[in-house]
Design goal:
The structure is a homodimer of 249-residue chains. The first copy, chain A, is 34% helix and 20% strand. Chain A is built from eight helices and 14 strands. The first copy, chain A, has two domains: 4-42 and 175-248, HAD superfamily/HAD-like (Rossmann fold), CATH 3.40.50.1000; 80-172, HAD superfamily/HAD-like (Rossmann fold, 3-Layer(aba) Sandwich), CATH 3.40.50.1000. With 249 residues, the first copy, chain A, is α/β, with parallel strands linked by helices. In chain A, helix 1 (23-32) packs parallel to helix 8 and helix 4 crosses helix 5. The interface between A and B is medium-sized, with 28 and 29 residues.
Amino acid sequence: MLQAVLLDISGVLYEDDRPLPGALQAVQQLQDKGYPLRLITNTSRQGRAAIHRQLTAMGFAVTPQQIFTSPQAVLRHVRMAGLRPYCLIHPGLEDEFADLLDLPEPNAVVLGDAEMRFDYAHLDRAFQLLLDGAPLICMGDNRYFRGQGALHLDAGPFVRALEYAAGTTALVLGKPSAAFYASALEDLGASAEATLMIGDDVIADVQGALAGGLRACLVRTGKYRAGDELRAPTAWVAADLAEAVARFC
Amino acid sequence: MLQAVLLDISGVLYEDDRPLPGALQAVQQLQDKGYPLRLITNTSRQGRAAIHRQLTAMGFAVTPQQIFTSPQAVLRHVRMAGLRPYCLIHPGLEDEFADLLDLPEPNAVVLGDAEMRFDYAHLDRAFQLLLDGAPLICMGDNRYFRGQGALHLDAGPFVRALEYAAGTTALVLGKPSAAFYASALEDLGASAEATLMIGDDVIADVQGALAGGLRACLVRTGKYRAGDELRAPTAWVAADLAEAVARFC
């Protein structure tokens, strides 16, 4: 029945830059069994190439094409729709978006975790494009992230700011949005019903996948907290990736 | 019955920097009759002193103390609550807020139309204070304003951004909020039922005042558009300030 697998990355494959016990072997087993596979993440501060280097340095045997990020989902959408985006993105994504930067007469707004580029002039420019009918396409709408011992504004507040200003609703291509899961499945060429998502975040990974019609397995590693399974009663549960793959794949 | 009067400024007293017909005399009549009077505005790019200079240059006989702006309402609130605000405000307000700038260990966030100061570092600092429990106090939550032939982001989008990030709700001390009208009445020392608000903006001036329990008169000058009276059926209506004062005061 199961035909394809999606894996969250941080907290499922590794913690603190070290592979979780059995994770390297579990990924290899999925590859050996021939499952179409995507490692999915909302990371919008680095491109697929950088994530691939990081994973291979830890010993994971995956190809760059098996990594599907929110920025990848945005690129996929922008290219299929033939849009010319105005990009408010993190410098870490500039290589990946190289052919879409500084296009004349933009007709869409792409917003990632632009951090220091979130200033009045850039946001006002984005606002004016939205008023002209440009769609707002985002890599996620997280409220904040933890860095250097404190919480900091993520992209979500700026998404809400522009939505309110222009009276529009963003297309959010990041977990847990159904649109993101749909994009990953298209990239994978698999149906939702035959695809299993394995993750440690009960909202982004598990509830999101279930809402998109996928099967989902919550692992008790990474950001898992006791009782999280109660928030997704129809999900499978496993101690970690190794057990999830051994039992369900 | 009527004991006090509130007047909107732009579009009621003047248009294009010139007093509207009969407006100078109407204000003088209100003064002569001894009504406690406040000229109220959401302007958060200039202080009361600058507005007073502008009005007296046009010939209006009012004192600075009769001008009550959103920044004034914020100052009133901050001082009465003994707060030490972190101020994200327009440079035009720095004189008025001089004794509140750069205070150590701020325990509140004050947000006006900061324009170019709306950047990641300032917003992230405000966010962290909100996480620590500081209240968010705003001079308005307008979505945009018109300037130099285009619409530009006003403070409202940044209010929504911080509310979303920190999971809080701002205290908005600008028209049409009931809190702003309550503050103006306190400054005036008058009760809502005995106070008349005269304005050209059916939402900010008229609906706002009615919701706060005041009486309201819509004038057909400034931003008035045909049919606006249908959006506030319980408001009085007059051709302009001169007629409103002659008929109702």
